[in-house]
Structure formats: C-alpha cells, structure tokens
Design a protein that fits this description.
The chain is mainly beta and about 1250 residues long. It contains eleven helices and 93 strands. Helix 2 (about 35-60) packs across helix 3 (about 100-110) and helix 7 (about 1180-1200) crosses helix 10. Its main location: nucleus.
C-alpha cells in the first residue's frame, strides 16, 4: 500500500531535442560526445529504476491484459509472471505524456542484455531479434501477434524462448531470376549458400552451388544503366547493360555486388563494403534491402530510426553510404516506387496505438535527407505488412493486409476485401505489373489483377488458383512456369494451366526440390540392420510437416537373387542392337560360361547361345553392330548372330599366345596377349578384321575403348594400363599411335581403366589394385591428361563399369566398398553403395527388371534397382501435420512422435497427439490425443529397474491462454501392445516437461526451473507409478538435458551450461533397515550468459553447446583442479560461429564404421538446424587436428570468399557482447573443398605446407569417410 511518483518529463524533453537535432544532421557516422553518452546512460537508468520500483509493487497487483510492452520478471522463489506497460497500475503515477512510455521501452531494448537484482526481484530484459524472410521480392516481415502462433509451432512454450526460436520458421529461401544470353537463370538463397539454376525444357538444372561467408539478409537483382565501380582500393567495372547483377547484404552488415561469368561459370565480385554503424538498435522486423528501379540508390533499413543510402553517381560509381533519420520506428516494410522523377520510398509502419499507415518520402541527394513524398495513406488494415511496388505505367503501390488489399498512388485509391489470410510471398507476372501471384500461410496461391484503362487503375480482382507448398518466395519464370520457394516444406516448380483440373485447381506441380528445414527434432537409427546409421527428422511445419529418412550413399533395392559362387564377370546382351530391353545375362566362371535368359514367368533360367564357347572362361562380351554378339576368351574372339545365335566369324590368338585382357564396344575389339602384344580388331557385318598390331615393352594389365564422342559405337581413343612401369597410356585408333603416357607412381599396378564422359567432360579413370582410384580430365583433341586426383574407395582391386540412370551416365566401382561415381555441377562425386564386397556389375534392363543392375557379390548374383543418384538419399513421409518430437523403440520396431495439427475452421485451432508408427512402412498404428491446450514437449523410449518392459514416456505442458507461463504438465507412460499405445501411468507436474532422459533405470525430467528424478515403483495392486525421488533447483528454465553415467548436463534458457551429479546416501532408519536416498547437486557451471538452443556431451569432462547467436562452444570441467573454485567453474575451451540455429545434437554416424579403418575410432555427433542442415562433428586426435588446422590456414590464403567475405571473420565467435577468433574448431566443408581445387591451387597449398599433394589428398579423404 504505497504510492510512488516518478517524473521523467525532463528526460523526455531532452530526448525530443536530440531527435530534432538528428533530423537535421546528415546521418554520417560520428563519434559520440561525452554529453551524449551521459544522456543515454541517464535515460536508460531512469527507465530501469522506474521498472524496478514499479515491478516490486506490481508483483502484488492486478495485471492489465491489454498492455503492449512486455518484460519478463521472476522472483527469486521462481514465481513467474508476465508484466506489461509502465502505466497499467493507477497506483503508480508516471507524470509524462504517453510517448514517454515508448521511449522508456525503446531505451530498455537498446541494451542487448541487462541483468539486475533489486530486493526480491530478479529480472532480465533482452532485445530479441525477429528475423524475416527477405527475398528479391522483399518478402513481408511477420507481425508481432504471429509470434505467439510461432510459439506453438516448433519452439518451447516459454515466451522468451519462443521468440528466440522463431527462427525455426525463418529458414531462408529467397529466390530471384534474371536473363542472360536469352536464358533464364534462377538464384536461390539458402541462408549461407547461393544456388544458381538454369531454366531448361526439362526443369531447373543446377549449375552452381557456392557457400557465402555470412547469413544472407537481402538478395536483389538489378541492371545498371551505366557501368558501376565500387569505392574500394581496387575498382571493378561491372560491364554495361547486358546482364543483371546480384546485390547481397548479410546479417553482419556486409554487402557485395556479384556478376555471373559465363565463360568460367563462376560468380565474380564486383563491389563490396561494410554498412554497419557503431551505434544504433537493430530492427525488430529484420533487415530490409531495396534498390531504386532507376539504379540511383541502394536503400537499407538496418537500425530503428535510420535509413541508410548507398548512392550511385552519374558515372555508375557506388559512393559513400550515409544515414537519413527516419521518424517511423516500427517499420514493417519499405519499397522504392516506380515512375518518380526523384527516388521515392513508401514506408509501411505501425504507430504507438497499433494503427498502420503508409508514408512516402523523396530522397534528396543534395540535402541527404527525406522530403515529404507525393502521398500518404492512414489507418490501413491492422494486418497490413507487405508493400508491392507497381511498375510503370501504372505506378503506385499495393498494400497487402490480412482482410483487404489496397492499391494506392497519388491519383487513385482502390481496395477489395479478401478471405482472412496472411500473405507470405508474392511474384510479379507481367512486366507492367498488372498481375501478381500471392502465396498465403495456408499454401494457397491467388492471382491478383489490377484492372486499368491505359494508365488509369479502375479496380482490383483476385482469384484462387490452387494449392502449393507454403510459399516463402514466388518467382514467375517463363511460359506460365513458376518457382515456389518454401521454408516450411519442399520447394516446387509449378505450371499454371489455362483450364482447371477436376479439383478446380489451375496448378500443376512439375518438380519438387527437397527441403529438410526446419528440423525440429531427429533420431539416429539403423533401420536396415546393416551397421549404417540413418537420420529420421521431424521436418517442415503446418500442413507441409513430414518425417524424412536420410541416409548416406545409394541403395540397391533387391528384386531377385540366386546363389552362384565364383563369378569372374557378368555382361548383359540383347537379341537385337536396337532392342529396348536386354535378353541375355552372360555369367563367366573360372572354367565355364553360363547364359541366363528371362522366361515367360519372368524368371532367369539357363539357355544357350550356340555360337558361344561355354566350357571356357569368358573375358569379355558385348553387343555388336549388325545384330551380332561378340565373345572374347583366352584363345579367340567369336562373332555370333544375335538372332540365329550361330557363329559368323572368329579370330584366333597366334600359336603360343593367349589373350590376357580384352575389351570391346559395338564395332571395335582391343585385346592384349602375353609378351606385351596389343591387337586392334574392327567388327563388320559377319567380319572380324585385325587392323593393327603393336608390340609394347611391358605386359598390359587393363584396357578400355568405351566411346566418349558423338558416335556411341566407335571410340577414337584407347586407354591401356601397364605392368612394370606402372603407367597408363592413351593410344589413337585405329593406328595405335601413342598419344599420352602418364606415370602413376608407386608400386601398385592399374587393374581397371575407363574412358567416360560425365556432364560433357571427358575423364580417364584408373583403378589400382589397392583400392585407390585416379581420375584425370582428358582433352580428346590433344590427349592431355590434367587435374590428376587420387581417392581411396576401398582396400581391394576395383572394377569400373558405366551404367545409365535417368538418361545420365554414371560409373560403378565394384570393390570391397562399392561406390558410384557421378558428376554434379561439373564435379566428380563419390557415393558409397549399401552393399558389401561387390566383385562385378553390369546394367540389366529387362521387361521384368527395368533399369536394373546385375551384381555379383558374396557367392550370389543379385538383380536390383538403384536409388536416385545422389550422396544423401532422402525419403519423405508426408504426415500433413507438424511433428515436433520423435524417438525410436527398437524392441517394438516403432517410432513415436508428438505432433500438432492446425484446424483453422475449428473452435480449437490446434490439436496435439502422440502417434505410433511402424518403422518399416511408416504407417500410423495408433494415436493418443492430448487434452485441450496440452502440448507434447518431450518423448523418450526407456526401461526401468526391475521391469523387463520397454516404455514410451511423453512429457507435456498445458499452455493456457490466461497463463503467462505453464504451471501444469504431465508425464505419460505408454507401453506398446499389439501395435497399440496403452497408457499405464501418468504423473502430474507443476510446469512444462521440457526434457526427459533415461537415468540409471529411472526417469529424469526437466520441469520449468527444476530437474526432477522419478523412480518406477510397484503399487500394492500390482500397477506401477512414477514416484519423485529428488530434484535440483537453480535454473531460469531447464530446457535441454543430457546424461552420462551419474552426470547431468543442463542447458539453461539464459545461464549457459551447468553440470549436476546424482549422489546416493544411506540412512539407518528406526527399523534398522537401510534405505537408499539420492540427491542431485551442482558441481560446476559456465558463468557466461548464453541463451542455449542445444547441448551435448563429448566426453566425461567436455560438453558442447549451441546458442541463439548461431555459435557452437565447448566447455571443460577441471575435475583435477586444486581448489573448489576452479573445480566449480567450467572453462570455455572452444568457440566457433556456425551460422546456423542448431536445434538438436545426437550421437551417431551416417556411415558404416569399418573395424580396419582409422576413422572408426573417431567419435562423431550429428546436429540438425532450422534451415534443414544436417551436420557432423568429429572429435579429432590432437595430431590430426594440428595438421588440418594448418591446412585450413593455408587454404584461407588461396581460396577467396564470394563477395570478398572473410572466412576467418565469418567463423569467429560472436554474440551480443563480444567476438573472438574461432578456436578448437575446424571448418570441415572448407577443408574438404581441397579435393575440388585445380591442380595448380593444390600445389600452391602443398608448397605452403611443405607437404606433398598426394599426402594432403589422403588426409582429406580420411576426413570425408567420417560422413
């Protein structure tokens, strides 16, 4: 019962005078004076004091639910409530006008993090960035009231935490397209990468994928009217008007201008710079970057109250940037307008009464200030948050709201009502801007039409076209083809049809592009029982939610198999060279050859080709021209009719010689006999003509004449591997003229060579007897072999064969670790196959087994189809709802997930479930609906002491509208019986169960601020229940928990990482019975303030954390320290900026760990991020780490980042308080890119390290085997 009066009027007036002075300034960066600093500090202090005093009183008073400004306060006894604006209680008289309240809140939020204690009140005020999807079309910033919606989709129920994890739904996916040489090229921004695709009749063809050392905030295309030169030590000319340029701004306030170089197929940097300011509060609604349509200015809204201008002069130079004071603080969107004599912007903003308006300003280059624009529009739709500038001749702007769309210009105002929705993206269809595609939060695509008579706008029309993935960006490409970029599901390439289909939709999906983000949770399992881990993720959101099964390598799906031990070779043959399907399968053994063919029951059975020798080993077989077949044995070459199966001709080896190795194509045969004799034979209609014979100085070990030119039946080159001198040679056919000789080095002979063309590039592949593979780029005109690279694919000899999949040529490398070699973006990729010890392979395309492979392995012949050729194979299980938590139970072969379904038309907009799925076909087996307002927060499969059953445990939270923090939750214990979920026990909790862990036969739960341990006890009636044993207080919010033995690692909302231990003490009871009673104590903590997003345990003393500033860090406990103080403090030993919001760490690996491999001893951890990234972390031995750190340093000097961005700065640890160089972490992506470098750059790095290139390749290859 007391009354406090605080007069802040004088501070408010001083702030206003400062604003007036700033409005007249030119906005250039200046040094803050002592008086200005003192004024800021005093004003902030006044605000804090007022809040502290007011809070002490308000803790006992009623809270005004209509308040706007929200702060989080917590008493030391952990009573949590949400309090509101500074004048909601009449008992506190703030003698100041209402705008002062906004100033106090703004002042508080200027500080990124303030922690204060006052009496019994503990609170923290933190500025929380709300990142937005910014694309070339500058997608809208999500409004404030949607943040509570996001809290229910993919983040914790705690308000502060949900705001931080809002990035879960902000997975970047900006996209734009331009024309170059009459081709449509599409640029996609994926957070820290840029993908470039070419629009072809077959769809989008990927041509480049490059990393960018920064998180991309803005992606804009523009075409300058004159050449552009940046104000940098070295100036760059940007050409002229022939092509578009790409402007990129990063969240770290760097920018660059990029140009596409078609000759080198690379992005080149033409300008770069830094647009950061020393002071200023970052915008809540995310950065906005825009370019004047006439290329006079680049505009950036980076800080509240400031608009940064980067001007072009009349010579096309980028001049020095400057700031202009912007009165509107809560800016929702800014766009440059078309058709204005002076550069003009439209600003959509919200005032302090929550009303939304649009103002226009002209940018005065001379005054470096704003001049009032030609028009303004007040009191718009409360949901308006997107501006669409309309090009000439119509000009003006479209204002997109939740319930209305308004067209505004100096001469016209038109509006239409729409069905209530939140527009997420737009794309312009016509050059004149009369038609637009709009994508909303439900995945619906609408067509908005501006009706007009000449240049006069007469109205607006809108029509529903159909449904797609929830769009984050829309780009109309050409001929009614549209790209839908989605951060919530798979991106799509769609076609808009003139007529609707049976469902009334005009949308036809042409192609889908996998997007794993946002990954909310995942588990690592071995579903196929082959010792290789697979990741099953909870991906997507809303209706685009799904489960994704991700595994490394390429799968062979077995269709048929037969036991045939001792296979020495297999080949497929046709009845006619023009047949679509193969007829025969030739299987060679040490002393015989068997011919298999498909019968009418689609079974393989023995048959005969009369012209073939069946009592000898076949060295090679092939289809030949003129409907013939060729068989090569150790003594002869036989030409057989494929229709009559009779022998037509043969060539016999000279007396005293046998054929050692041979190869053939449809019209040529090349073989080698003992003594180094090389014989070239051409195939005619019933003829075998020996064209050339050559005597070589050494024995031949392998041959190939696979055609790589335009004629698929004839090769102009032959590749020959040699014994003794360990070389590979290229001969010109038909003369057998030596073209090129390449010494392979070492003592291991080549066992298989292959000429092939992948993505239009000719290669020579040479496999050695020890499992290594050398690849060269082959210049077919000069015979030059360049870019020599060596990789290890196994430990046994490799056999190389080509095959086709989806009209593309690939190479199968058969060995003890079989692999598929393919080309992607002009780079060779090696992907392992999920089989063991394949000795031979050939394509086998039959009616019963289309597009299959015949594979000889482990004493059997297998016929199977091959997965899509890619390094990671991803299988999608659409579930139509948002899966938030997942776990696997091996004993019952099931998955359990916590999911939510949106029901816009129902009274309760969300329903939450626990669902049971079969782990083989992923069909739903059972569903347990949760209560109204009950969320599934955690899930676990575990067993308890003295109980043989395995249970699913689910932790929940009741998120009630009237509560600011959950005060109630449940722990549900299920058992799987006959494919159903049976609830066997439940335990009510006093808060949200954020985490569950199995702990020494008991259950460990994180409930709000407490860590609680439960034991599984038996009741008198024979049923079981969870009984509380002990707990630990002292956390703000215990969100993430991991355990190891008796140790418990806790990731707190704000207080970084703490380490707890469970101890058992014995008490002697009165009954002289000993009763065990445990306790949980804190033994160490990291005293840095970090807002955690995930934690992991690396070893007994080292722990891993991820924070909301996209950093990773490791802390170490000094268990052997001399003093208690040192033992209680965990030291930060590693820091690294990963640039991704990590949601989960899990132990495991995506590759098969072979016992004989050095890498099998290296522990790995997998992590999943909001943007759909799956990453691997490996704990390296010190020697290997030191070597790779030196390699990384050398590579930084040679490889320059796109846009001139520094890799070293990018990977430096940074948060709101400090930055520091990365330590104890290496960038595996950068190091592995060594294998993609040219030979010249490899040698440059090799010279700097004083290590041979081959040794560097070997060490990097070892690293690649970890994933």
């Amino acid at each position: 019962g007391f009354e406090i009066t605080i007069d802040l009027r004088e501070a408010y007036l001083r702030e206003e005078r400062e604003r007036e002075r700033d409005r007249s300034a030119d906005g250039r960066r200046t040094t803050t004076t002592d008086e200005e600093e003192e004024e800021q500090i005093v004003f902030l202090g006044l605000g804090l004091v007022s809040v502290i005093i007011w809070a002490c009183h308000t803790l006992k008073a009623q809270i005004d639910p209509k308040s706007k400004f929200q702060l989080r306060l917590s008493k030391l006894n952990r009573t949590v409530l949400l309090i509101s604006s500074l004048c909601s209680e009449p008992a506190i008289l703030l003698k100041a006008p209402p705008p002062l309240l906004h100033c106090i809140a703004s002042s508080l939020l200027r500080c990124s993090s303030i922690i204060t204690e006052a009496g019994s009140v503990y609170f923290r005020v933190s500025r929380v960035e709300s990142e937005t999807l910014v694309s070339v079309t500058n997608e809208e910033e999500e409004e404030e009231d949607e943040r509570m919606e996001l809290r229910r989709h993919g983040s914790e129920t705690n308000l502060c935490h949900s705001l931080l994890r809002r990035k879960l739904h902000q997975s970047p996916g900006a996209q734009s397209h331009c024309r170059y040489d009459n081709s449509v090229m599409t640029f996609l921004r994926k957070c820290t990468r840029i993908e470039i695709h070419l629009l072809t009749p077959q769809g989008l063809e990927a041509i480049l994928d490059v990393p960018l050392y920064g998180r991309i905030a803005t992606l804009e295309l523009f075409r300058p009217h004159v050449s552009i030169v940046s104000l940098m030590p070295t100036s760059f000319s940007l050409g002229g008007e022939t092509q578009d340029f790409l402007f990129i701004a990063t969240e770290g306030y760097k920018f660059c201008v990029l140009q596409w170089d078609s000759d080198s197929s690379e992005l080149t940097t033409r300008a770069m710079g830094d647009v950061s300011d020393r002071i200023g509060r970052q915008t809540d609604n995310g950065q906005i970057g825009i370019i004047d349509p006439d290329c006079r200015f680049i505009g950036l809204h980076l800080y509240d109250g400031l608009f940064k201008v980067v001007p072009f002069d009349n010579k096309g130079q980028l001049k020095e940037a400057y700031n202009i004071r912007l009165e509107e603080l809560q800016v929702l969107d800014i766009k440059f307008l078309y058709g204005c004599a002076k550069p003009t912007i439209a600003v959509l903003y919200q005032d302090n009464k929550d009303a939304r308006h649009v103002k226009t300003y002209e940018v005065s280059q001379k005054e470096k200030d704003f001049v009032e624009g030609p028009w303004s529009q007040n009191n718009l739709d409360n949901g308006a948050d997107l501006l669409i500038p309309v090009p000439s001749p119509l000009c003006g702007v479209l204002i997109i709201g939740e319930e209305t769309i308004v067209y505004c210009s100096a001469n016209a105002l038109k509006a239409i009502p729409i069905r209530s929705s939140i527009t997420k993206a737009y794309g312009r269809v016509d050059v004149d801007g009369s038609r637009y595609l709009l994508g909303d939060h439900a995945g619906l695509i609408h067509l908005l039409v501006i009706t007009h008579e000449k240049e006069k706008v007469t109205g607006l029309k809108i029509e529903l076209l159909g449904e797609t993935s929830i769009a984050s960006t829309i780009s109309y490409l050409d001929n009614a083809v549209v790209f839908i970029g989605s951060s919530y599901g798979d991106s799509q390439l769609i076609k808009l049809n003139m007529q609707p289909d049976a469902n009334g939709s005009y949308v036809e999906i042409i192609e889908q592009y996998v997007n794993l983000g946002p990954i909310v949770d995942f588990c690592v399992v071995d579903l196929e029982r082959q010792g290789q881990g697979q990741v099953v993720t909870c991906s997507g959101a809303y209706k685009d939610g799904s489960l994704r099964i991700v595994r490394n390598g390429i799968g062979i799906n077995e269709q048929a198999s037969v036991e045939l031990p001792g296979i020495k070779g297999i080949w497929s043959l046709k009845s006619s060279i023009d047949d679509a399907f193969d007829t025969f399968l030739v299987v060679s053994f040490i002393s015989e050859t068997r011919i298999l063919a498909m019968n009418i029951e689609d079974e393989l059975e023995d048959t005969e080709i009369e012209g073939f020798l069946s009592q000898v080993q076949t060295l090679f077989c092939h289809d030949a021209v003129y409907n013939q077949l060729v068989q090569i044995t150790s003594n002869s070459v036989r030409l057989v009719s494929s229709t009559t199966r009779e022998l037509r001709n043969k060539w016999d080896a000279p007396a005293g010689f046998t054929v050692n190795v041979a190869t053939a194509n449809a019209s040529q045969v090349l073989l080698a006999t003992g003594g180094g004799h090389l014989v070239y034979i051409e195939i005619g209609d019933g003829t075998l003509t020996e064209v050339k014979h050559a005597q070589l100085e050494y024995e031949v070990s392998c041959l190939d004449i696979n055609p790589t030119g335009d004629n698929p039946n004839y090769s102009q080159l032959a590749a020959v591997g040699m014994w003794t001198d360990i070389s590979v040679r290229i001969f010109v056919l038909p003369d057998l003229t030596l073209f090129t000789k390449e010494q392979l080095g070492g003592e291991i002979i080549p066992r298989s060579v292959l000429l092939c063309a992948l993505e239009g590039i000719s290669y020579l592949l040479c496999a050695l007897g020890d499992g290594h593979l050398l690849n060269f780029q082959l210049d077919t005109s000069t015979g030059e072999l360049r870019d020599r690279k060596k990789v290890s694919l196994g430990t046994q000899p490799i056999t190389l064969r080509t095959f086709s999949s989806k009209s593309a040529t690939h190479v199968f490398a058969a060995s003890d670790r079989p692999s598929v070699i393919y080309s992607n973006n002009k780079k060779l990729i090696y992907s392992n196959v999920n089989l063991k010890e394949v000795s031979h392979m050939c394509p086998f395309n039959s009616g019963a087994f289309p597009d299959s492979l015949a594979i000889a392995r482990e004493g059997e012949l297998t016929i199977g189809t091959i997965d899509e050729i890619q390094k990671l194979h991803i299988r999608t299980i659409p579930i139509g709802e948002h899966a938030r938590r997942i776990c696997h139970q091996e004993q019952t072969r099931t998955f359990a997930i916590c999911s939510l379904r949106n029901q816009p038309s129902a009274e309760e907009s969300e329903m939450h479930f626990v669902r049971l799925l079969d782990d083989r076909d992923f069909e739903f087996l059972a569903t347990y609906p949760l209560d109204a307002f009950e969320y599934g927060c955690s899930i676990l499969s575990c067993s308890f002491t003295d109980d043989k059953n395995v249970y699913y445990c689910v932790g929940t939270s009741y998120v009630l509208p009237e509560e600011n923090e959950p005060t109630k939750g449940r722990i549900l214990v299920f058992v799987v019986e006959e494919g159903k979920l049976q609830l066997v026990a439940e335990k009510e909790t006093k808060g949200s169960v954020y985490s569950l862990n199995a702990f020494n036969g008991k259950l460990l739960a994180a409930i709000n601020q407490k860590i609680q341990l439960y034991k599984w006890t038996l009741r008198d009636d024979g049923t079981r229940e969870l009984q509380s044993e002990c707990g630990h207080h002292g956390h703000i919010l215990a969100l993430y928990v991991q355990t190891r033995g008796d140790f418990i690692v806790v990731g707190d909302l704000m207080k970084s990482i703490s380490l707890l231990i469970y101890k058992i003490s014995c008490r002697l009871l009165v009954s002289v019975l000993k009763h065990e009673e445990g306790a949980i104590e804190e033994i160490a903590r990291d005293y840095n303030a970090s807002w955690m997003t995930a934690v992991g345990i690396l070893d007994d003393d080292t722990y891993l954390g991820a924070d909301n500033c996209y950093n990773l860090f490791t802390v170490k406990r000094h268990s052997e320290a001399a003093t208690d103080e040192e033992r209680c403090r965990m030291e930060v030993v590693g820091e690294y900026h990963i640039g991704e919001f990590v949601n989960r760490f899990r132990h495991g690996s995506l590759v098969t760990r072979l016992p004989d491999s050095e890498t099998s001893q290296i522990p790995t951890m997998i992590f999943g991020t909001v943007n759909g990234v799956i990453g691997v972390m490996a704990s390296l031995p010190q020697e290997q780490y030191a070597f790779l750190e030196k390699l990384q340093t050398s590579m930084r000097k040679v490889i320059k980042g796109v846009g001139g961005l520094s890799h070293e700065q990018w990977r430096s640890f940074k948060n709101e308080k400090r930055s520091a160089d990365a330590r104890s972490f290496l960038d595996g992506d950068l190091i592995e890119s060594f294998m993609d470098l040219s030979r010249r750059k490899m040698e440059e790095i090799s010279k700097g390290m004083d290590v041979q290139v081959e040794e560097l390749c070997k060490r990097v290859e070892e690293l690649t085997r970890l994933h």
